[in-house]
Write a structure and sequence with these properties.
This protein is an alpha+beta fold. It has a single domain, classed as VTC, catalytic tunnel domain (mRNA Triphosphatase Cet1, Chain A, Alpha-Beta Barrel). The chain is built from eight helices and eleven strands. Strands 1, 2, 3, 4, 5, 6, 7, 8, 9, 10 and 11 form an eleven-stranded mixed beta sheet that branches.
Length: 271
């Protein structure tokens, strides 16, 4: 049985319907990292639950690519590494199968509320409009030196993966979502990259109570992990950076990865 074989029996759902059903909910996110050979057991538990899977043009494992921006001082990374109350993340995400690219700005303010905003863009670069957009959102979130930070942003890290998105009915008429990321790869634009072909990252989005996928993972002995694709990946490639926050994940899942040297990408602010 392949890792994703159980999703073949699930009912498909289109992107517009998925967004319409899921956007109205208040969510708590939980992340898990696990060997892909553990996935079939977890996914088999979704049979007869009414779970639906996002399908676009007959494809259920959709290709994603993200380009992360940071300052020369790595302010975004350090905010995550040190758990700063006011921190941010800026990335350009491209949906390779469904089409479209978006500049996404994710902030966490003084009340520990995470907010993600996005705007469509052409290509994956950060042009002048993108800098203005980032400045506005960082300022609104109370990020110190917002304008300076936005002006200093440059591409640092690329990630790529395939994603399966699930919509799961829950008790009381609620729904939860889960994403499963496979074929994960990272590329530090200065130092090269690595991949984790035998690893999956599962993220659940549910109401305050754990959802069905959370409970299935827990029954399999898999617990939530502290993980950030950008920050944990950068810490794996640059071991001199502070990484205590992700020590367990780095040791257990990222340590076997080999990181070959690679030339710097041609991606630039105005690409």
């Amino acid at each position: 049985m392949t890792a994703l074989e159980p999703i073949g029996a699930l009912t498909p759902i289109g992107l517009d319907e998925l967004n319409a059903e899921a956007e109205l909910q208040t969510r708590i996110d939980r992340k898990y990292i696990l060997p892909i050979d553990r996935l079939p057991q977890v996914l088999a538990g979704l049979r007869r639950t009414g779970t639906r899977v996002l399908e676009i043009d007959g494809e259920r494992a959709l290709r994603y690519a993200s380009l992360y921006f940071d300052t020369p001082r790595l302010d975004s990374f350090l905010g995550a590494a040190h758990g700063r109350r006011r921190r941010f993340k800026v990335r350009a995400r491209t949906y390779l199968d469904s089409g479209g690219s978006f500049l996404e700005v994710k902030t966490r303010g003084g009340r520990s509320v995470t907010v993600k905003e996005r705007v469509p863009v052409d290509g994956a670069g950060l042009d002048e409009d993108g800098v203005v957009y980032a400045t506005t959102l960082l300022s609104d979130a109370g990020i110190p030196r917002a304008q300076i930070l936005a002006r200093d942003l440059d591409p640092v890290m690329e990630t790529a993966y395939r994603r399966v998105t699930l919509l799961i009915p829950e008790a009381g008429g609620d729904t939860s979502r889960a994403t499963i990321d496979l074929e994960l790869s990272w590329n530090d634009l200065d130092r090269g990259g690595f991949s984790l072909p035998g690893t999956a990252i599962v993220e659940t989005k549910s109401s305050r109570r754990p959802g069905t996928v959370d409970r299935l993972l827990w029954r399999s002995g898999i617990r939530p992990a502290t993980l950030s694709k950008y920050a944990t990946g950068l810490a794996a490639i640059r071991p001199e950076l502070p990484h205590n926050k992700w020590h367990r994940v780095l040791t257990r899942y990222f340590a076997p990865a080999t990181i070959p040297a690679a030339p710097r990408s041609s991606t630039s602010r105005t690409s």
